[in-house]
Amino acid sequence: MGCVLCKRMMYRVAERIARREGALAVVTGESLGQVASQTLPNLAAISACVRIPVLRPLIAMDKEEIIALARRIGTYEVSVQPANCCLGPPPKPVTRATQQRAERAEQGLEVEALADELAERAELREVSPEEA
User: Fold this and answer.
1) CATH number, residue 26
2) Which of 21, 30, 58, 102 sits 20 to 30 Å CA-CA off 40?
């Protein structure tokens, strides 16, 4: 459940930044079923914590298509760097999370205050169309 909760926090932060910047949606690079957190139940549980549309333009692409696209737009190198979060992948990842289970796991945590703080500390970088 840790990966689902981590992504819920990232979505909360992304929503705050999007609203601050005047964006109408959050766009992700998720692809259905590529990793445990990207099962349909998990994506639904993750998205349920925000009130802004979440767009997933890569949702139906396979891994090789995504790698080719990342190389073409110059994001491949950063995408293969080791993640700097959590404790690493769980030994038994949850693939069928629910919104209710995620909310129960978050009880007692100050997720909204933490999301506010993280959004304030986030560093935004603009990328020109030539770079993307």
Assistant:
1) 3.40.50.620
2) 21
For residues 47 and 32, give the distance between their C-alpha atoms in angstroms, rounded to a whole number: 14
The whole model's pTM is what?
0.86
79 or 83: which leads in pLDDT: 79
Structural domain count, the chain: 1
Taken as a whole, the chain contains a residue count of: 132
Question: Read out DSSP for the chain?
Answer: -HHHHHHHHHHHHHHHHHHHHT-S-EE----TTSSGGGSHHHHHHHHTT-SS-EE-TTTT--HHHHHHHHHHHT-HHHHTSPP-SBTBS-SS--SS--HHHHHHHHTTS-HHHHHHHHHHHPPP----TTT-
Highest mean pLDDT among 34-43, 88-97, 122-131: 34-43
- What residue numbers bound the domain in which 20 lies? 2-121
**pLDDT above 60 for 83:** yes
Does residue 72 fall inside a structural domain? Answer: yes
